[in-house]
Design brief:
Helix 2 runs antiparallel to helix 4. Helix content is 41%, strand content 9%.
Length: 211
């Protein structure tokens, strides 16, 4: 089984599509699955398209500015749930402010903005040959469960979706729920929700379908 959270979900899907023989099933937690027109507010500071500018900022302003603004950024990522008081230290959030970590995160975000790969993946979801179990927080403000979970469910008959109360950081804010769901996914006993019965995702202004 391959497990992916957020952007890791898109990477896991790419592996399953391109190398299906290497993976038995997917467990995707709040995954990015479809082209999104806007960068989530929490990550806009990372959107530095020039590699030169990115490198300069990473080695000059990124750490001090990050230290000053990280609390606000974390609140946006965790919203509407509270950020654990020790997440910056025990959770490793401060490590993301190192120059190398900032540079790589920015490069990843710019790569996502070039949505051609993701758009091509969207057209191939119907070809998934392995089960893809998806867990989403109903109140996720980073990636909407309808646009990324429900939409995947509509495109792939191998996908199931479970929606629970919570935000984007379920592995941290709802560890027991996430653990139980993962155990069910490993055992192939995940019970899907009724989320795939609605076609509301098709009219979402944030959802871009490329034919």
């Amino acid at each position: 089984m391959l497990v992916g959270h957020s952007l890791g979900g898109a990477i896991a899907l790419a592996v399953a599509l391109d190398h299906p023989h290497t993976v038995s099933r997917l467990a995707l937690i709040a995954p990015l699955t479809h082209v999104q027109a806007e960068v989530p507010t929490a990550f806009r500071a990372l959107l530095l398209r020039s590699a030169t500018v990115r490198r300069f900022v990473a080695h000059t302003f990124a750490t001090p500015i990050g230290l000053a603004t990280s609390s606000t950024a974390l609140k946006r990522v965790f919203a509407p749930e509270a950020v654990p008081h020790d997440f910056r230290t025990r959770g490793g959030a401060l490590l993301s402010l190192r120059p190398g970590a900032f540079y790589n995160a920015s490069a990843d975000l710019v790569a996502i903005e070039d949505a051609s790969d993701l758009a091509q993946m969207e057209q191939r979801y119907a070809l998934l040959t392995i089960p893809a179990n998806v867990l989403f927080g109903r109140q996720d403000t980073v990636l909407d469960w309808r646009r990324h979970g429900d939409a995947l469910c509509h495109r792939s008959p191998r996908a199931t979706l479970k929606v629970v109360d919570g935000g984007h950081m379920l592995p941290v804010t709802a560890p027991s729920t996430t653990y139980d769901w993962l155990r069910s996914a490993i055992g192939g006993t995940v019970r899907e929700s009724s989320a795939c019965e609605s076609d509301s995702w098709k009219s979402s202004p944030m959802f871009v379908s490329v034919n």
